[in-house]
Amino acid sequence: MIQCGYIGLGNIGKPMCANLAKKAEQNGLALQVFDIAPEPVAEMVALGALAASSPEDMARECALIGICVRHDGDVENLLYGDGERPGMLAVAPKGTVLAIHSTVTRDGILRWARDAAAKGLHIVDAPITGGAGGAADATLCIMAGGEEEAVARCQPMFACTSKAVVYAGEAGNATVVKLANNLMNYAAFSAISEGTALLRAAGVDVQALFDVGAANGVVTSMMKQFIDGRDGLRAACSDEDMRAIFGPFASLAEKDLDHALVLAQQLELALPQTSTVRRHIDAVFMAKPPAEDH
């Protein structure tokens, strides 16, 4: 059995890990889990996983480790420690593969991969798309970047959580693909928000737009799911409730769009539509009128 670890049991990580726990043995894996919250760890233990006492203990024992935390800072803390802990890179045996499922910066991936390689370790950037629903039913698409051999070693783990793995080349490339995917997704959310607003202002039933969009492919299932969920909540929620429920998703959107725009600036590439989406994405998630551009 290959010793496998998983860190980060949040909105996406927990259902991913649940599938990993359920399918680990049949894929030749023995699973350890870690999270700072005890409740989701207990849920994974009930599914057959072992609870690791720390990220470093997991790194000492597991040949494959999946990481699904919120942002670059969380990954940094795991890999390098916090002054009191040494960090996973300092204790992992040579050959260990760490797959980063988080949507982070390309700069971060490239630095972590260099530092890992200097110690004989391997970083695979493995961001995912498919949302919490895809994580729950194991139909995610994983974008993978890194040495081909390291990515291949991750396949038993990836097989438990995804329906497709797209190899993008060297480390960092998969993160670029994910940022491009996300900027298009948030542009689509902005488009469906404005399209339905136009119909409502004109007194037209928005179902007509959904029916046309279904016929011609313009309105995707993800766009429809977003606008139905957002508008359903908006009708029933106060501003405070809306912020509590959708605010974290708006913050993630801002983070991902910021990562894409910083990368574009580094590449001396203009992304004017993405810049506009970034300015207004919070209003899109909150179902608020956007501020006027001047």
What can you tell me about this protein's structure?
The protein is an alpha/beta fold and 294 residues long. Helices cover 57% and strands 14% of the residues. The chain is built from 14 helices and 9 strands. The strands form 2 sheets. Strands 3-2-1-4-5-6 form a 6-stranded parallel sheet, sandwiched between helices. It has a 3-stranded mixed sheet with strand order 7-8-9. Helix 1 runs parallel beside helix 2, helix 10 packs across helix 12 and helix 10 packs across helix 14. The termini are far apart.
List keywords for this structure.
single chain, 9 strands, about 15% strand
Quick recap:
The chain has 14 helices and nine strands. The chain has 294 residues and is an alpha/beta fold.
How far apart the termini lie comes to: 60 Å
The backbone outline, from C-alpha atoms, is: globular
Tell me the number of helical segments per DSSP (H or I, 4 or more residues long). 14
Alpha-beta classification: alpha/beta
Q: Give me the Rg, rounded.
A: 20 Å
DSSP strand count: 9
**Helix percentage:** 55-70%
Model regions low in confidence, pLDDT < 50 over at least 5 residues? none
Strand order of the largest sheet: 3-2-1-4-5-6
Order of helices and strands: EHEHEHEHHEHEEHEHHEHHHHH
Mean pLDDT: 96
Largest sheet: 6 strands, parallel
Beta content: 5-15%
